[in-house]
Specification:
The chain is of the alpha+beta class and 268 residues long. It is built from ten helices and eight strands. 30% of the residues are buried.
Length: 268
């Protein structure tokens, strides 16, 4: 991805976001500051692997966008530092029209601290720079509001990685980034199938996959997936203790990995 240097570069990069902001404020007539906050939430979710979220939202009619906006406000309310929502207290699905497997409000309650930091950072580094009080900034208006002294690499790193230490695998214990996988009897998944599945859904998040090594004539029943960051795990679980997926017409169950004395495994 090209480095973003000046504010004009930033505005060009976020052209679609600016179009959607103007539509929500001008046509749908939502409060500009609230729209800015919801846009920061959506952009943060995109960074977590929900790709093309803004493009998908922009393709909807005004009524649907207005409903998604209200859901975004609910989610933002649940990540505030003083929010009084016990974990597991609200499993209401959100953004149903956006995802094949919608998340629920518990996701935001469970990940309150991280999501608050992420959204706040996106607000400061992106939304406050490209959105004005009543409309998105236009290319050419940057001379008065551009932030001097930031080169492209610095800006891009700042926008995409506010908590860099959480995304460096060698700085995070492997067990904290691992999920235990279970297959149906007689229907194991290959290492490639597992990597492809998680990559398609959440992007380049897999560091490695370990499949149970079995005796000749026996099929594996379980394995482990090691992610590049532990932050992927709540996305997979979506507020549940165990997640169930269908991969190439075969069942896959995933849960948090609990370290114990390991048996024989193979990376095949």
């Amino acid at each position: 991805m090209a480095a973003i240097g000046s504010l004009d570069d930033l505005l060009l990069f976020y052209t679609l976001e600016r179009v959607l902001f103007n539509r929500m404020v001008g046509t749908i007539q939502k409060d500009p500051y609230s729209v800015k906050r919801v846009m920061a939430l959506w952009l943060s979710l995109e960074e977590l692997g929900y790709h093309d979220l803004i493009r998908t939202i922009q393709s909807f009619d005004d009524k649907t966008i207005a409903a998604l906006f209200e859901e975004g406000l609910y989610c933002l309310d649940r990540i505030q530092p003083n929010a009084a929502y016990p974990i597991g207290s609200d499993d209401t699905p959100v953004f149903v029209s956006l995802f094949d497997e919608p998340m629920n409000r518990n996701f935001f309650i469970l990940n309150r601290e991280f999501m608050f930091k992420r959204v706040t950072h996106t607000m400061e580094t992106v939304c406050n720079r490209i959105f004005g009080d009543t409309a998105a900034l236009e290319v050419g208006e940057s001379s008065q509001v551009d932030s001097p002294g930031q080169d492209g690499d610095t800006v891009r790193q700042s926008m995409l990685n506010p908590d860099a230490t959480e995304f460096v695998p060698e700085l995070t214990p492997e067990d904290t980034r691992t999920m235990f996988l279970t297959f149906s009897i007689g229907q194991p998944l290959s290492r490639k199938e597992i990597i492809d599945f998680f990559t398609i859904k959440w992007g380049d998040v897999v560091q490695d996959v370990v499949i149970e090594q079995t005796r000749t004539g026996h099929m594996p029943l379980h394995g482990r997936v090691i992610f590049r960051t532990a932050l992927v795990i709540p996305l997979v679980l979506n507020g549940q203790a165990k997640a169930k997926f269908m991969v190439n017409r075969k069942h896959l169950w995933a849960r948090v990995y609990k370290p114990r004395r390991r048996g024989r495994t193979a990376r095949n």
